[in-house]
Design a protein that fits this description.
The complex is a heterotetramer of chains A (about 725), B (about 575), C (about 325) and D (about 325). By secondary structure, chain A is α/β, with parallel strands linked by helices. Chain A has 26 helices and 24 strands. Chain B has about 575 residues and is an alpha+beta fold. About 0% of the residues of chain B have low confidence. Classes of the chains: A alpha/beta (about 725), B alpha+beta (about 575), C mainly alpha (about 325), D mainly alpha (about 325). Chains B and C meet through helix 3, helix 4, strand 11, strand 14 and strand 15 of B and helix 2, helix 4, helix 6, helix 7 and helix 14 of C.
């Protein structure tokens, strides 16, 4: 039975600059018990569609035409009061950013019971009982009912919101990005909950996300939305094996996949069209590698393409051959270049780029195509000797101390952010730091660039101990080490033009000559594929897209020709379609320029794609380190195993194994005698609590710090109840 | 080298020699800038405007004059405490200031002003802050005090004193204010209102004599100043004085024409220059029902004389417990109780003002209440009667205490057992600093007797004109407004200069324009209200005339330079 | 109350005490270094040097500055604000103790009135965002905030008291009535008192209502943009519930804090209103004391107002941390 | 650093360069421009200030009479309580011996009210702008230092702010102006001594936010010094906030000065609107029903204060777009 049926829905937003046709003729059917995934880039109308269904569009939004039928009722003709009654009793919605969806000044439990009483007609007692049941159902401790939202972790909040959404036993659940911005383990747990509830409650679900691997895990069918239209509809399996629309194809190939790593990821460069004046032809034509002339004129309609699939592409009949072509990343790369047409391409860019990017071999061996050794601070490949050494480095923060803290009544606490980590980095090598949030990886990144000073231990950069540098030496260091930031929207001074932002490092480092600076800036912009560079010089950050901004950030990092780059979650804020582009460019340049790189990310598949080696961090310690493939394919530490197991795979046929650890990294306010992971470790033994685990390694440099491989491997398993009682 | 130096020196000396006679012959140094003090406009607009006017006229004499308007408290500081070289403000001693003396019944005798304002003995610490020091005058001031028996002779001395002061122009008197008072004649019989010379209609005689014409026999008045104490041994200001004089009787009272007459005393008989016998009325009662007896009267003076010797910074000092009244009792050498109703005062020195400033000044207080209080105070180092506030003040006056809220109101009612029971039943005084509110209340009938008006008299006049039931009374005050000169320093140490400045005061213009006619011209510290003491030959006059002032200065050798600036006489 | 909150409160309290001590020290220096002479109110034709010295001794002004400071602090701890220069037989505390209730009645009544009107107005303004009504309403509110209080008071006085004689012009009541008020309770039960309070209260409330109104309006607009408000819409709550129970409730928090702070600041800021309406409160006493150079009194009034402000700031912080659970023990409330 | 060989053509011209260098200032200018372009009320506020500024500068030329000197009639007496000519009875003035050309009449001692009003704009603007400038500068510097350096610098400065928050505002101004010589500068100094507290705190918290933003870290990683970070990176971002608080401070300062003058703690030689009202109140203008004396100064105060509010709100709406009217 069709539970939700949308016909030719059109939603417009009135803005100062014109009418945005956010949803433009969407038709959609949702059968009872179906789990539909609605995917697409941000800004393609997914959330608007949701808001239109439950009719909570903002003031400037208007449903222009179309029909939304829910269980036979025409929602658009329903009086507002009756529509209101439907919400959450029949159609439950989990809004985006559900982190902030709980009232911060009310206990979560009372929000839930209030909902049950006001909307569900429950009596006080019954409501309380139901609340307990619901918390149980989503896997939350019922004690938590008495807590305030700020005392919840992100995953717990998400569970609470799910509990609220299911409180009135709706027949349809629409979830908007339910796991975005959550740590991988938490994400895994939430998806587990969703999957379980789908099964138990026989829910009909519509899941809105940009992450196709999430869809693969939870949904049985997929709709792809692009620029206010649905461009493909399919069951999950055929969709993931053989997408029927070039956009789907691109999305699929843009995702790193732990199970089937690629040498080069595809990036769908460019942006969705301006929906104030949508193009008359295919809306994807601008970015499509398979574009033909008639694509620009003819607006393709959603048509059956076999296997019960629908696709809106003029070339859908040739899709099988297109799929094979699409395997070649250069096809998409050409699009990237085409996006910034360059009248006179630089000779040294050609070939080199594609060689480097298709080559994917070990890092430093790729021969850079740039002239080598340009004086002090130049980019050299003198030898493969050690560039950086971390020796037993620790970092603690004191919070709430001092006179003012005392007066404010804060008790001083020490946060052990980084504990005794050691590793070395060779010139040109790339290392990935992975772990859940709060594991100390960003702090390590800051220590590496001396944004923070280590509390103990030494960091030796190119032979100099960083704790002992004087101001002049520090300036020298600063010219050789750079940081690339997570959020490109914050990484640039909004008040500076790009030229000003890029020229600042040069000014600081004493480049007096304006024309030299300009030349360097232009050259660097060119190198990060922002062409023609002059176009960008006078722009302000808000005039650029996220992907472009991140390229500018990269350019600023490279403008001084550093030896060493730390990239802290360089693409986590970006849309999937452009992530790959940034990663590719960074990786290519690092190899071309012999740049040593440290990538910090919670996304192991990304690190596997970009890094020679990966280090796994937990509570400020490196628990495992080794060559990327080794760590991913042969994880030694139980924590690494859990992390890898939690990564969703964009393949509906592969179901992740159930996780054996709970979410939630404890706050690092104490130092552990034994293994910091012991509390969460499924393999924990008695020795883990008392004795520091040994570092066990093999000849390829794959090391793990765990008792499972040491002399205490025979230690009896930990009795957790006894431990809790202690 | 040295030759060159010498020639330069010689040349310079020649030039100096040439220049010196020219300057010294033609004019002296420029008269330095003068600061004229007054209170701020916000505090007393009339005084501020007057000062402004005079300052502008003084500038026409070629003087550089600054008008320094500061709050009263600061003014006191700069005037009172910068009279001598040792003072903290010695770098800027005051030169000229607007000053005001208010009229009080005890000032009906000229002694206080004659002696306390000008005698050289009060030059360093007392009211002679202008630093006037004239042995000839001192003799006159002392003589009038002793001249008890012969009133005519005393008048002669006082006239001479007025002549001296007027000639020496130590204080440039310009007006005696006419105190405007408004009475609601719809509730009071206007004929029953008594005007007291120099005080006005708001006086003791009016309070007990005024006849209410309606059933509501309550007199409601207000003050714009402070009502901060209700204490028979403290002089806290004008408004509290009204209250104490009604609540506590006195042996004598100043009668409407300014002469003391027996009041609580049946008779006051001078046995000689130093001894006076006072006999009390029979049957007087304290408000608590006790009899008023001669030992109460005696104690009233003893309390004022009570005190301890205290050592401070190695200096022995007598510390009176009632410092405000001590000066008025200090001439008493001995008090002898003759019987229950009569007692004899023996004085240290003969004093003509004894009746006015002692017998008619000191409040009679009940010994049975005050003796324990004073005795207690005598054991304490740093407390005096100012720190005492009786729960229910007990006096023997025609009015008795009902309620008192500091700086808010005082509420008295007629004392039924008094031999001169007032015609009204209750007397209420509100504190109303807000003049608008005062006007509103007198018009609305919320208040029926306006006795104090620091504001624009013209407004009051127009209100009275608009309201049939309001009558305006006005009387020349004992008080006066004047400019005081610090005679210690140049240029005000020169009598001619002071006289010239006196010529710049546009007396009539001030009366017409600033006081709206509600002021009388003044030429002496004795008010025209005190008719008897003003029966003197014409005092010197100083008409408003800038030319006159210039002529006077020119005659004394002052001169003006090309920029019109005034220079001292040469030499 | 958790231990963290208890710690927070204790810490804030200690901080308030320290702030107060600094203020008290500044106050001491301010008044000791003042140019006016404390004896100004005593000057009379009979004033002698002897008397002067005695008076200085009586108020302890002849001692060295350091010694005076210690005495001053010790006395403050004993809640002894000293004797006034100009009110005989009364201590500073007596005078201020009589003033304080009047100031509090005036302040609280006006604040409650102002905040009731302001909060409701703010909700309405937020709900009617963009309408002509909102534009006119906010402009009017801005006007009331821009107009000098004393001026508004003067105009109101002219019409209501002088022209139409509807309301009394000043004070808290005629003496014939007032002397029967033996306790504060009697005063509060007296219709005369409330009649006298109407004009000053209205003037003050007219000025004070602007802050809560504008604050409530902007808070509402901010809260209405929050995800949890969207969430309650999505949850199918009625618009009334969304606006009042969720949005207004959350938007109220800063307004409540502002109210608490407002109590402190109004008590110090009522000076002008009390002057215009001759309201016997702390502010009027302070002005008169300053004019009269009655140091102990002015200092005492200043001190008392400062204590109330610091205390109210303290309460506001505590209140905020209690009302908004997010402001935990570690966060410093950034209100005001 | 060695110069790399020119890979590309000629560098762009010099003029364009300078334009780019001044970009931070230009951006700031644009923010200010945006405030007044976006918000008509803010523009109106600016207009009010402009009008009063012109009046203040040319006060002696505009005012027909000296504001402090009482005017005299033919007989040399003061022209007291003259009604504005448009209210006066015809012929009344001739009887009194003067020509009534007073727009707003005269005071009770014959000063020209209109001239006082004109001259009053001087002290209002002087007080308003100098106090606002002081408040903005102190508050900004305090906020920058406390926010950027944190630690004990922050602790001391914020404790100082707490103290400033604990000192009763109007009483403090009264006491200071009573103790010092009456002068508007003392009022300005006293106001500035306390009012910086709000600006300081808000700017501090803003600095704390900006300091954590990646572009500041980026500057640090690039080797920028603390001073460079504070003044090149952080300060321009918080300057609009300083302007915001500055505009509100103009309003508060004018209001406060009026209150203090009204209570009689101002310099009587300097005409201000508050002083005029004090004069009117003490000279019983209410009883005279001299509305031509009472109303204009109050309106002027209200207008200038509102101008400050309008401009402040303009900044608020640009800085905190959520408050924006749709």
């Amino acid at each position: 039975m069709t539970i939700l049926s949308i016909r030719d829905l059109k939603v417009n937003y009135a803005t100062q600059d014109g009418t945005v046709q956010a949803v433009d003729g969407v038709s959609l059917d949702l059968e009872e018990g179906q789990h539909l995934g609605l995917i697409g880039e941000s800004g393609c109308g997914k959330t608007t569609l949701l808001k239109a269904i439950v009719q909570v569009l903002p003031r400037n939004g208007e449903i222009v035409s179309g029909e939304i039928k829910f269980q036979g009722m025409d929602l658009l003709k329903l009086p507002p009061a009756e529509m209101r009654q439907l919400r959450w009793r029949e159609i439950a919605t989990i809004p985006q950013a559900s982190m902030d969806s709980l009232n911060p000044v009310q206990r979560v439990g009372s929000q839930l019971t209030k909902l049950l009483r006001v909307r569900g007609g429950y009596h006080k007692k019954a409501a309380r009982k139901r609340a307990v049941d619901l918390f149980d159902m989503v896997g939350l401790d019922t004690e938590r009912l008495m807590h305030y939202p700020h005392e919840f972790s992100g995953g717990m909040k998400q569970r609470a919101v799910i509990a609220m959404a299911l409180a009135l036993e709706p027949s349809l659940l629409i979830a908007d990005e339910p796991v975005t911005a959550l740590d991988v383990i938490v994400q895994h747990q939430i998806l587990e909950v969703l999957r379980q509830l789908e099964r138990e409650l026989n829910l009909t679900v519509m899941l809105i996300t940009h992450d196709i691997s999430v869809v693969a895990q939870v949904c049985d069918s997929v709709s792809v939305m692009y620029a206010g239209r649905i461009v493909e509809e399919a069951r999950s399996e055929p969709f993931f094996t053989s997408p029927a629309h070039p956009y789907s194809l691109g999305l699929q190939q843009a995702f790193p996949n732990l199970a089937r790593p690629r040498d080069v990821l595809v990036s769908i460069e460019g942006y969705p069209p301006d929906l104030r004046e949508p193009p008359s032809g295919c809306r994807f034509a601008e970015r499509c590698p398979f574009v033909q002339d008639d694509c620009h004129e003819t607006d393709p309609q959603l048509e059956a393409v076999g296997d019960g699939r629908l696709a809106a592409c003029l070339r859908s009949s040739e899709m099988d051959s297109l799929r094979i072509q699409a395997e070649d990343p250069t096809l998409w790369q050409n699009v990237e270049v085409a996006q910034y047409p360059h009248p006179k391409p630089l000779p040294h860019k050609e070939g080199g780029a594609s060689v480097a990017e298709t080559n994917g071999g070990t890092a430093a061996s790729a021969s850079p195509s740039l002239p080598v050794g340009e004086g002090a601070g130049g980019w050299g490949d003198e030898s493969s000797d050690i560039l950086l050494e971390m020796n037993d480095v620790s970092k603690q923060f004191k919070i709430g101390g001092g006179l003012s803290g005392l007066l404010r009544g804060d008790k001083e606490q020490t946060v052990y952010a980084v504990n005794n980590i050691s590793f070395t980095l060779r010139r040109g090598e790339s290392l990935g730091l992975a772990g859940e949030s709060g594991c100390g990886k960003s702090t390590t990144g800051k220590l590496l660039v001396k944004l923070l000073d280590a509390s103990q231990g030494s960091i030796v950069f190119d032979g100099d101990d960083l704790s002992a540098v004087d101001d002049r030496e520090l300036l020298g260091f600063r010219s050789r080490v750079q940081l690339m930031f997570q959020n490109p929207f914050e990484a640039l001074n909004p008040r500076f033009t790009l030229y000003r932002s890029l020229t600042e490092p040069l000014i600081i480092h004493g480049w007096k000559d304006e024309s030299e600076r300009l030349q360097r800036v232009v050259e660097t912009l060119d190198r990060v594929n922002l062409r023609p560079a002059e176009v960008f010089l006078d722009k302000y950050p808000h005039q650029l897209s996220g992907g472009q901004l991140q390229r500018v950030v990269l350019a600023r990092a490279l403008v001084l020709h550093p030896d060493f780059l730390v990239a802290d979650e360089p693409v986590s804020m970006l849309d999937v379609s452009v992530r790959a582009g940034i990663l590719n460019t960074t990786r290519r340049l690092a190899r071309e320029l012999g740049l040593a790189t440290v990538y910090i990310s919670h996304d192991l598949s990304l690190l596997q794609y970009t890094c020679d080696r990966i280090a796994i961090m937990y509570l400020g310690e490196i628990v495992e380190i080794g060559p990327s493939n080794e760590v991913i394919n042969n994880p030694q530490h139980p924590y690494t195993q859990a992390l890898i197991a939690a990564v969703p795979v964009p393949d509906p046929t592969m179901e992740n194994p159930p996780l054996r650890i709970r979410e939630g990294v404890p706050r690092p306010t104490e130092q552990f005698i034994g293994c910091p992971f012991a509390q969460r470790c499924p393999e924990a033994m008695e020795a883990c609590l008392e004795i520091r685990p040994p570092v066990i390694g093999d000849e390829r440099g794959h090391q793990a710090q765990c008792h499972l491989y040491g002399e205490h491997r025979e230690s009896p398993p930990l009795n957790r109840d006894a431990e809790l009682a202690r | 080298m040295s030759r060159k130096l010498i020639s330069i020196a010689v040349l310079a000396m020649m030039m100096l020699a040439l220049a010196l006679p020219v300057t010294s012959q033609s004019m002296g140094e420029v008269v330095p800038p003068i600061i004229v003090h007054s209170v701020t406009q916000a505090e007393r607009p009339i005084e501020y405007e007057t000062t402004r006017l005079v300052v502008e006229n003084m500038r026409e004499l070629g003087l550089e004059v600054e008008h320094r308007a500061i709050p009263w408290a600061q003014l006191i500081d700069e005037i009172w405490y910068s009279r001598t070289e040792e003072s903290s403000a010695a770098d800027r001693p005051f030169q000229m200031t607007h000053w005001r003396m208010v009229g009080r019944p005890e000032r009906s005798d000229p002694d206080e002003f004659t002696y306390n304002l000008f005698h050289s003995s009060v030059r360093d610490g007392g009211y002679n802050f202008i630093g006037y020091n004239n042995p000839e005058y001192d003799a006159l001031a002392e003589a009038q005090r002793v001249e008890v028996a012969d009133k005519e002779a005393r008048l002669g001395i006082i006239c001479e004193a007025q002549q001296v002061i007027r000639h020496d122009m130590v204080n440039a008197y310009f007006i005696h204010p006419l105190t405007p008072q408004v009475v609601n004649t719809a509730v009071f019989n206007p004929d029953s209102i008594t005007t007291q010379a120099g005080i006005g209609v708001h006086n003791f005689w009016t309070w007990i004599g005024i006849e209410p014409t309606t059933d509501d026999k309550t007199l409601i008045t207000s003050t714009t100043s402070f009502l901060n104490s209700f204490n028979p041994l403290e002089i806290a200001g004008d408004a509290p004085s009204r209250v104490t004089e009604m609540t506590w009787d006195r042996l004598m009272r100043i009668n409407p024409i300014g002469v003391p007459e027996p009041w609580a005393a049946e008779s006051v008989v001078w046995e000689d220059q130093l001894n006076v016998v006072v006999t009390l009325r029979e049957g007087m009662k304290w408000h608590d029902g006790e009899d008023v007896q001669s030992d109460d009267a005696a104690y009233s003076f003893e309390a004022a004389l009570a005190g301890t010797m205290q050592t401070k910074d190695g200096e022995e000092r007598f510390q009176p417990e009632a410092p405000d009244y001590y000066p008025f009792a200090s001439n008493v050498a001995n008090i002898e109780i003759i019987d229950d109703l009569s007692l004899r005062f023996t004085l240290n020195t003969p004093s003509a003002a004894f009746e006015t400033s002692s017998l008619a000044k000191l409040n009679l207080i009940p010994k049975h209440i005050w003796e324990p209080i004073i005795n207690d105070l005598l054991t304490q180092d740093d407390a005096d009667v100012d720190s005492i506030q009786e729960e229910i003040p007990i006096g023997s006056g025609p009015f008795k205490y009902v309620a008192f809220d500091v700086n808010e109101f005082v509420y008295l009612e007629a004392f039924e057992d008094h031999w001169a029971r007032p015609n009204i039943d209750a007397w209420i005084m509100n504190v109303l600093p807000n003049q608008e509110a005062t006007l509103g209340q007198i018009q609305a009938g919320e208040m029926n007797f306006l006795w104090e008006w620091p504001g624009d008299p013209g407004v009051l006049q127009s209100i009275v004109d608009d309201n049939e039931h309001l009558d305006l009374f006005s009387a020349i005050s004992i008080g006066m407004n004047y400019f005081a000169f610090n005679v210690r320093y140049a240029p005000f140490d020169d009598v001619t200069f002071r006289q010239a400045v006196a010529h710049t005061i546009p007396q009539q213009f001030i009366i017409d324009n600033i006081f709206n006619g509600l002021a009388a011209p003044a030429d002496s510290f004795v008010s025209a209200a005190l008719e008897y003491w003003r029966q003197c030959d014409d005092l010197p006059t100083y008409d408003f005339s800038i030319e006159g002032a210039r002529a006077l200065l020119e005659g004394a050798g002052y001169s003006w330079d090309d920029d019109g600036r005034l220079h001292y006489p040469a030499g | 109350m958790s231990r963290g909150v208890a710690y927070y409160i204790l810490g804030r309290f200690l901080q308030s005490v320290m702030v107060l001590w600094i203020i008290v020290t500044l106050l001491f220096l301010l008044f000791r270094l003042a140019p006016s002479n404390p004896l100004a109110s005593y000057i009379d034709t009979t004033f002698t040097k002897q008397q002067e010295a005695a008076l200085l001794a009586r108020f302890g002004l002849d001692k060295p500055l350091g010694e005076q400071y210690i005495i001053y602090l010790v006395n403050l701890l004993k809640l002894d604000l000293g004797d006034t220069f100009s009110y005989s037989g009364k201590t500073v505390l007596d005078i201020l103790g009589a003033d304080l209730p009047n100031t509090i009645y005036l302040t609280l009544t006006s604040l409650l009135l102002a905040y009731a009107v302001g909060v409701l107005g703010g909700i309405v303004m937020a709900a009617m965002r963009g309408s002509a009504f909102e534009r006119i309403g906010t402009t009017f509110t801005l006007m009331t905030r821009a107009a000098p209080q004393f001026w508004v008071g003067m105009l109101l006085l002219t019409f209501f008291a002088f022209q139409w004689k509807l309301l009394p012009s000043s004070g808290i009541g005629p003496p014939m009535v007032r002397y029967r008020w033996e306790t504060e309770w009697d005063k509060l039960m007296s219709p005369v008192f409330w009649r006298h309070m109407i004009l000053p209260t209205f003037t003050l409330a007219l000025y004070l209502h602007g802050l809560p109104l504008l604050l409530m309006r902007s808070n509402m607009l901010e809260v209405l943009d929050q995800d949890y408000v969207t969430m309650s819409r999505l949850a199918g709550y009625s618009e009334w519930r969304v606006m009042i129970q969720t949005a207004a409730r959350n938007a109220m928090l800063p307004v409540l804090t502002a109210l608490t702070l407002g109590i402190g600041y109004s008590i110090g800021g009522n000076v002008v209103i009390e002057h215009v309406f001759s309201w016997p409160g702390l502010g009027r006493t302070l002005v008169r004391a300053v004019q009269q150079a009655d140091y102990p009194l002015a200092q005492g009034a200043f001190f008392l107002i400062a204590v109330i402000i610091v205390f109210m700031n303290f309460i506001a912080d505590i209140l905020y941390s209690l009302l908004d659970p997010r402001v935990g023990a570690s966060a410093q409330a950034q209100v005001s | 650093m060695q110069q790399e060989a020119s890979v590309r053509g000629e560098p762009p011209g010099k003029a364009k360069m300078e334009f780019r260098q001044g970009s931070a200032l230009r951006q700031l200018w644009e923010t200010n421009l945006e405030v007044f372009q976006r918000d008509k009320m803010a523009l109106f506020g600016l207009f009010i200030f402009a009008v009063f500024a012109i009046v203040a500068v040319f006060a002696p030329q505009i005012a027909p009479n000296d504001p402090l000197t009482p005017l005299k009639n033919n007989e040399g007496d003061w022209i007291k309580d003259a009604m504005p000519y448009w209210l006066a009875q015809p012929g009344e003035d001739e009887a009194e011996g003067y020509v009534n050309n007073f727009l707003l009449g005269t005071t009770n001692i014959g000063r020209d009210i209109y001239s006082q009003l004109i001259h009053g704009s001087r002290s209002a603007l002087l007080v308003g702008f100098s106090a606002a400038a002081a408040v903005a500068v102190i508050g900004t510097v305090v906020g920058l230092l406390a926010g950027y350096y944190g630690g004990w610098v922050d602790a001391i400065l914020m404790r100082a702010a707490d103290v400033a928050f604990g000192i009763p505002f109007i009483p403090f101004i009264i006491v200071v102006s009573a103790f010092l010589d009456p002068s508007i500068w003392n009022v300005v100094v006293a106001m500035a001594a306390l009012l910086w507290r709000d600006t300081g705190r808000v700017i501090r918290s803003q600095v704390l936010v900006i300091k954590e933003q990646a572009f500041v870290s980026a500057a640090r990683v690039s080797g920028a010094s603390d001073l460079r970070i504070i003044f090149v990176y952080i300060a321009p971002s918080i300057l609009p906030l300083s302007f915001l608080y500055g505009s509100f401070a103009i309003a508060w300062a004018i209001l406060t000065e009026a209150s203090v003058s009204f209570l009689g703690f101002s310099d009587p030689e300097t005409i201000s609107w508050g002083f005029m009202l004090q004069d009117a109140f003490n000279s019983l203008a209410l009883s005279r029903e001299a509305f031509y004396w009472i109303v204009p100064p109050g309106l002027c105060i209200m207008l200038t204060v509102m101008a400050g509010f309008f401009i402040g709100r303009g900044y608020e709406e640009v800085l905190f777009p959520r408050l924006r009217r749709m």
